[in-house]
Structures are given as C-alpha cells and as structure tokens.
Amino acid sequence: MTGKKIRVCPKCGSSRIREAKSSVSGWLVPSTYYCEEEGCGYSGTLYVEVDAEELETLRKVMNGDSETAASDH
Length: 73
Ligand SMILES: [Zn+2]
Prior knowledge:
binds zinc ion, two-stranded antiparallel ribbon, 2 helices, three-stranded antiparallel β-sheet, about 25% strand
C-alpha cells in the first residue's frame, strides 16, 4: 500500500487538474481548481481525490468503455 493520493478532474477524470491561486489577499476564499485537459474546461471548487492505483479504473468507468467487460461474460 502506497497510500498515494492524486487529484483528478470530476468531469473527465484527468489528473491534469490544477489549483488556481487566488490573488486576493486577506480573504478566505475557497480554492478553485481547473482542468487542463483539452475539451474539458472544468473549473470549480471540487476535485476528486483517488489512489494512484484507482485512477486507471476510474478513467475506464468515466469513459464508459466496455471493452474489458465484454470478455468478462
Ligand atoms: Zn477535466
């Protein structure tokens, strides 16, 4: 168990999510995250945190790819 956690985009599952630093000083503002994935354009205060090992599984689910499930039956 590595326990390594990574942030991924809640919209597309990409790990290319970044935290946008606010330039407002002296104010407690929630961090905003945005996705660098082309064609996604997500930005918001939410992100998904998963184990590094779970990322591949998550992305398969989000892609709706049933390639692996087909041979499972
Ligand atoms: Zn995204």
